[in-house]
Amino acid sequence: MVPVPALHQNTKNLMKKSISIWSFYGDWSLKDKMKLAKDAGFEGIELDVSGDGPITLDSDEDAIAAIGSLAADSGLTLSGLATGMYWEFNPASENAESRAQAKVVLEKQIRVASQLGIGAVLVVPGSVGADFIPGCEELSYDKVWDRATEFISNALPLAKELGVDIGIENVWNKFLLSPLEMARFIDQFDDAHVGSYFDVGNVLATGYPEHWIRILKDRIRRVHVKDYRRAVGSVDGFVDLLSGDVNWPAVVQSLKSIGYSGWVAAEMIPPVPFYKYAPETLIDNTSRAMDSIFGLA
Q1: Selection from 119, 32, 124, 26 nearest residue 78 by Cα
Q2: Is the N or the C terminus of the chain less surrounded, counting Cβ atoms within 10 Å?
Q3: How far apart are CA 70 and CA 36, in angstroms?
Q4: For the segment 134-153, what is each residue's pLDDT rounded down to a tens digit?
Q5: pTM above 0.90, yes or no
Q6: Cα(209)–Cα(201) distance, rounded to whole angstroms?
Q7: CA-to-CA distance for 157 and 5, rounded, in angstroms?
Q8: Which residues are paired to 120 by β-bridges?
Q9: Residue 262 C-alpha from the chain's centroid
């Protein structure tokens, strides 16, 4: 009989196990979410900057410090800082106000990350379009490249000053569609503070995450994991870890081959309707799945 990893076990892997705040569904406080994550065996939690908190564009240093204290009390490390606000404020938009607001978002991310001791922030530097957003602005690919380059270049001095890495996420924005292109985009800045916030599941619709990992190599600053079923072909194809088409042994072997020893955060969105009656179950199931995944290859 094949042994099943015990829930909450210490996997003793070089990679560190975290979970995104987006994985939690329910009327829980941030303290409750942290306790759920800790009890499930996670070492870290990835927070975000959003319109409804707990970290917003208006959060002051005292409010942010309180979140840091909450994490310390929970025994969790803050592993990364994401945001979904780039879908609302496209850094490459034709609308100058949207571009200006995107700059505000990125600067806030960098300052919050610095205060909380978070080493990397997730950034979507521009979108050509997005099928899952009704009425999404459609832009010229080359213009998005130029504006995205400018967007990151303008933020880089602050990131360097505060010691925070800008992690470019591969996401469904019809931009940076191959690992070679992602590498080229990152390399043009010639600075270690710009890298990849690599999402394993997001690749499945058009490619193979193990290829991306071997090509991006030490450009990778953080890793997101989720699973995906190619046959679905839409955002509804995202599923629980180990229940989709990700070749997990190949992914783990690729991460090991490049010597990756950083944070791997589960981004399990959305947890409903499959967990609508007991959404906390998703957290335990995800932890168990990650223990199994880390043990592969």
Answers
A1: 119
A2: N
A3: 13
A4: 999 999 999 999 999 999 99
A5: yes
A6: 8
A7: 44
A8: 165
A9: 13
State both tokens at 54.
């707990």
Three-state secondary-structure class, residue 246: coil
Look at the chain and count its residues. 297
Q: CA-to-CA distance for 128 and 151, rounded, in angstroms? A: 15
Task: Report which secondary-structure segment, H or E, holds 74.
Answer: helix 61-74
The per-residue pLDDT for range 283-295, each reduced to its tens digit, is: 999 999 999 999 9
One-character DSSP codes across 124-169:
----S--TTSTT-----HHHHHHHHHHHHHHHHHHHHHHT-EEEEE
Q: How far apart are CA 73 and CA 41, in angstroms?
A: 15
User: Which position has the token pair 């995104």?
Assistant: 20
CA 212 to chain centre: 16
DSSP for 18-65, please give it. EEEGGG--SS--HHHHHHHHHHTT-SEEEEEE-SSSSB-TT--HHHHH
**At 110, which amino acid appears?**
I
Per-residue pLDDT tens digits for 44-103: 999 999 999 999 999 999 999 999 999 999 999 999 999 999 999 999 999 999 999 999
Query: Distance between CA 140 and CA 136 in Å, rounded?
Result: 13
